[in-house]
Amino acid sequence: MPPGTIVQLPHATSAEAVATVRRAAIPLTGAATDYDALIERIGAARIVLLGEASHGTHEFYAERARITRRLIEREGFTAVAVEADWPDAYRVNRFVRGLGSDPDADRALLGFERFPTWMWRNADVLDFVTWLRSHNRAQGERQAGFYGLDLYSLHASAAAVVAYLQQVDPTAAVRARERYACFEPYASDSHRYGQAVVLGVSDPCRQRVVTQLVELRRRAGDYLRRDGLVAEDEQFVAEQNARVIADAEEYYRTMFGEHAASWNLRDRHMADTLDELVAHLDRHDGGPRVVVWAHNSHVGDARHTQMRERGELNLGQLMRERHGRDAVLVGFTTYDGSVTAAQDWGDPPRRRRVRPALPDSGEALLHATGIPDFLLLPELSQRLAETLRQPRLHRAIGVIYRPDTERASHYLLTRLADQFDALVHLDRTHAGHPLEREPSWDLLEPPETYPTAL
What we know:
Layout: H1 15-24, E1 26-27, H2 36-42, E2 47-50, H3 58-75, E3 79-85, H4 86-96, H5 105-108, H6 123-137, E4 145-150, H7 154-168, H8 170-180, H9 190-198, H10 206-218, H11 220-224, H12 229-254, H13 259-282, E5 290-293, H14 296-299, H15 315-323, E6 327-333, E7 336-341, E8 350-354, H16 362-367, E9 373-376, H17 382-389, E10 392-395, H18 406-410, E11 411-414, H19 416-419, E12 422-426, E13 428-429
Parallel strand pairs: 2-5, 2-6, 3-4, 3-5, 6-12, 7-13
Antiparallel strand pairs: 1-9, 7-8, 9-12, 10-11
Helix pairs in contact: 3-6, 7-8, 7-12, 9-12, 10-12, 12-13, 13-15
């Protein structure tokens, strides 16, 4: 039977399983040595993917930043690639490298205007970006960058390509503007473009954006003769923006069909962007090492979850297939607490209670150890690996949290020991703080037992 096929029911949390996890757990106490075992597991790997079980949890962002700072300061990592749009993240990249006109991290993060803004415009990211700018000041040329992997920035990327060509080839800029004008009727909502094409109301822009990408690549040699490395970096950024447009165009058309097709296109785009970034940095830095921040659903190997049965792949799977042990996948879990999330797409963020994990979940098993926060490395214990290889529910909260339909909306069966190389469990977590929040954000939902508290 294929390794991703999960036909068993979840295993109940047994005393033996709890004892196995407790013996293998490496407590996280805030000490400088907390992640020594994880660093040893990472070894010489060039790509480390750090997950999260929600897009709005303070501790996930804070611990990822803590691990990332150590990887940059002491292990030679030179890039952070995040589940964010390329042009928005590149504005931050310019800031942390001391370029551009943004006076501080808050201003540099203003590029993140698309819902959900709190995913990257939050207090923890602000602190990390501020730290990265300070760190880079003392590094000379070997600075650490900040990049985006996602494909939603159709219009922002089109504007960036035209702006680049306006500087190096004004005639080509005119052609690019004419080709991208195909998207102008849908500037306020890219989803409407895909819907219009599917319904036959509009002709697809596919050929135009592919032609533009091919032309940009073909003329690269002419543009690179200007001023060496700076020109090469600008050309790379422009080409990535052109590729975002091509993939975004296809994504918005496919999202109205089978879900797996659009999901797979997006994760392939992120994987290809990551590989392109590594190759680009390799030409300058020599052996770059990259930290990735993305949701568990992208970081964990989809082959060992129900995602495979739905025909879905993901970034973590592709990195393992392409790079083997040179890629390390780290998942993050929590049992309960609070989260910043919306009730529905486009709604303002609220600080919302996270229900205790379901009894048949991996989170419930980890909670039963009684250890508040800890690290697990399944490779270090055969018994632990066997315990975490049993199919269990695993919770995933994105930017939307629907506790009323939590089992259907937020859980899937996984084999945690195969899905991830390491697990960080933070038992009780708290909502991340958006940099902009409405008064309603502070209105935490009452507990389910209100008003009796029983």
